[in-house]
Design brief:
The complex is a heterodimer. By secondary structure, chain A is mainly α. Chain A is built from 15 helices and 6 strands. The chains are: A mainly alpha, B mainly alpha.
Chain lengths: 335, 318
């Protein structure tokens, strides 16, 4: 039992189970799963589907935080990627009155992801080459990014009418939401890359002590650059999911405050903000906790306004539990 | 010239340059009232940015500023609607703001938590509390409050200022004194320079660290009151993202984000530069509002790069 409680995923999983139990107690049909229109149907599937963009962004954020960084521009990158994709698809109709795409879908999606990865690379260059603090370096894009997205759209919300695009955020594959498959694939790919190659070790080394890692021959600059680029790419994928789900790109509101939720998800999952220690599974659970919390507040009939206060209390609690000084205080009181 | 004054000089030159550009390019730009309006329209940002300057000087960051301002406007509007005395309302708002900041500061100092995360949670909490008070915009029609909001103090030559702008100027002056002529101010600079050295020197590091966040909470509440004069309403969605503008103003004002170097006066010019960008775009008439964000982003980038260059050079000299 003691060993179980020490497992890094014990507390995040416990919190998630508690939230789910609370939901099931208030709403007996909560855990029920049905099969409708050729796909799984139920509250749990809904939570997984809605949490997918946050999971994707948080996975990128986990790696950035693991190398002692922080990326507060992901919300703006989500808006930029959504805008680029929506603009390239456009609102064209063919002669038959059916919605058509101005450019092939793969080109639109590819361009959006490329731009997003470019944004991440830019952040990485500012951190690695210019030596700026991560918060400041990404603050630049956070401030300017939405402006750039609005510049591209001319301040309008771009609506997309092309049905194939809706599959990403609203479609189903083998009974489960496509967005969930994307998040799962990203998680699986990352897990493989980090545990089966030396990359994971390098990232832990850089986060633990950048100088020591560099002296030991880890190419910390190049790896850090890649990590930021990946974080931008992840934000781009999330942007595609979000804009496909709402069938439009809103430069001003897409991904609003997503950077904060992502950092929160990473922290809740047990990744240390000081770098070096990270857990991908924890981050996924963290993202699920946040989404379940939102759903819980709706389903047990609390006003949605409470959401932020509950989130704040949750962050304070997690922070204090992670603080060695707080635990020391607690232990001293127990003795 | 003192090398530490260089970023401040660049900021002031940039402001003068932008003002000259506007005056040459646009008719009617060069008037006393246009420049006084810079202060009037950005008075709440100025007050909030002054508190942020101290936080950044100490090497920290405060993301809760905008949310505390929104909370203050909704609280004031709700209390006034309930028939409270306006001055008692102001006092309660200021005490709550300072207390909120002090609580955040205590957590950061006592448990060595990251300021970024603590004030992020504080931002959720303050914004959430203002939602709990009211999700809709509450108009303020208290006679005293409206009278203060509409008062114009003539300065001669056809120019005038609002009470909010005067409060902003008073805050800047008081903060300059606090930063450069008190024990607290010197301690804040010392913490930003090197916390361990400051501790070894016997400075009251813990007290100053909590005090910095207390001050920031207080100025955020004051900024909220100034904003409620400006808007004459309390709304939980007021001042969304204002903390970023405040941070941008501090950085453009020449304060190093690593802490320890910077001037309150620079922050005033940082705020004025943000204001003059908006004024220039408004005078131009053909540029859209999102250019403001892009220009602010570019300026932020340039100033950070300048600071890095500056740091590298001074390290080589040392």
């Amino acid at each position: 039992m003691k060993r179980l409680a020490r497992h890094p995923l014990f507390w995040p999983l416990g919190a998630l189970a508690l939230l789910l139990a609370l939901n099931a107690a208030f709403n007996p049909g909560f855990l029920a799963l049905g099969w409708r229109d050729g796909h799984l149907y139920g509250h749990l599937v809904d939570i997984l589907n809605r949490a997918a963009p946050l999971m994707v962004v948080s996975l990128g954020m986990t790696l950035v935080i693991a190398v002692r960084g922080l990326d507060i521009s992901v919300g703006a990158v989500v808006a930029i990627a959504a805008t680029v994709a929506a603009l390239l698809i456009g609102g064209a109709f063919n002669a038959g009155g059916e919605a058509a795409s101005e450019h092939p879908l793969w080109l639109a999606l590819g361009a959006a992801l490329l731009v997003a990865a470019g944004c991440g690379l830019w952040n990485g260059l500012l951190v690695v080459k210019a030596g700026m603090q991560p918060i400041v370096a990404t603050l630049v894009l956070m401030v300017a990014g939405r402006g750039i997205a609005q510049l591209l759209t001319g301040g309008q919300i771009i609506t997309v009418y092309y049905p194939p695009f809706f599959t990403i955020g609203g479609g189903f594959l083998a009974g489960l939401p496509v967005a969930l498959w994307i998040a799962a694939a990203l998680w699986g790919g990352l897990h493989f890359a980090l545990s089966r190659t030396a990359l994971g070790l390098f990232i832990r080394a850089i986060g633990g002590n950048p100088e020591a890692a560099r002296v030991a021959g880890v190419r910390s600059g190049a790896i850090t650059l890649c990590v930021y680029t990946f974080c931008g790419l992840a934000a781009g994928i999330a942007g595609l999911i979000v804009s496909s789900n709402v069938r439009s790109a809103d430069a001003n509101n897409a991904g609003q405050l997503l950077e904060l939720d992502a950092i929160l998800a990473v922290t809740l999952g047990g990744t240390a903000l000081t770098g070096g220690r990270f857990t991908l599974a924890g981050t996924v659970i963290g993202a699920l906790i946040i989404q379940t919390l939102t759903s819980t507040i709706y389903s047990i009939g609390l006003p949605p306004e409470v959401n932020l206060v509950v989130k704040a209390v949750l962050v304070f609690a997690v922070m204090l539990l992670q603080s060695a000084d707080f635990r020391a205080l607690f232990m001293a009181a127990q003795r | 010239m003192n090398r530490r004054l260089l970023p401040l000089a660049v900021t002031i030159l940039l402001f003068i340059g932008m003002a000259t550009f506007g005056s040459v390019r646009y008719d009617g730009f060069l008037s006393l009232q246009v420049f006084l309006n810079l202060l009037i329209d950005n008075s709440f940002l100025c007050v909030a940015a002054v508190g942020m300057t101290f936080v950044i000087l100490s090497g920290g960051i405060d993301l809760s500023v905008g949310a505390v301002m929104a909370f203050t406007t909704t609280l004031c509007a709700a209390l006034l609607r309930a028939g409270w005395n306006p001055y008692a309302t102001m006092a309660v708002a200021l005490v709550l703001g300072a207390g909120f900041g002090a609580a955040q500061g205590y957590l950061i100092q006592r448990f060595r938590l990251a300021p970024f995360i603590v004030t992020l949670a504080g931002m959720f909490l303050a914004r959430g509390c203002s939602y709990l008070i009211s999700t809709e915009s509450v108009p303020i029609d208290d006679a005293t409050w409206v009278a203060i909001a509409q008062a114009r103090i003539p300065l001669g030559f056809g120019g005038s200022l609002t009470v909010g702008a005067l409060l902003a100027i008073a805050t800047v002056l008081a903060a300059m004194r606090l930063a450069h002529a008190t024990e607290f101010g010197r301690t804040v600079y010392a913490i930003g320079g090197d916390e361990n050295s400051a501790r070894l020197m016997g400075l009251a590091v813990n007290r100053a660290r909590t005090g910095v966040y207390l001050l920031s909470g207080f100025t955020a509440a004051l900024a909220g009151i100034v904003m409620s004069f400006y808007m004459l309403s309390g709304y939980s969605l007021h001042a969304v993202g204002l903390e970023l503008d405040a941070i941008a103003a501090v950085v453009i004002g020449g304060t190093l984000l690593a802490g320890g170097v910077g001037y309150v006066a620079g922050t005033l010019f940082g705020v004025l530069i943000l204001g003059i960008i908006q004024t220039l775009i408004a005078f131009d008439g053909t540029l859209s509002s999102w250019w403001t964000r892009i220009v602010v982003g570019v300026l932020l980038l340039l100033f950070c790069l300048l600071q890095r260059l500056f740091e590298k050079r001074s390290r080589r000299l040392a």
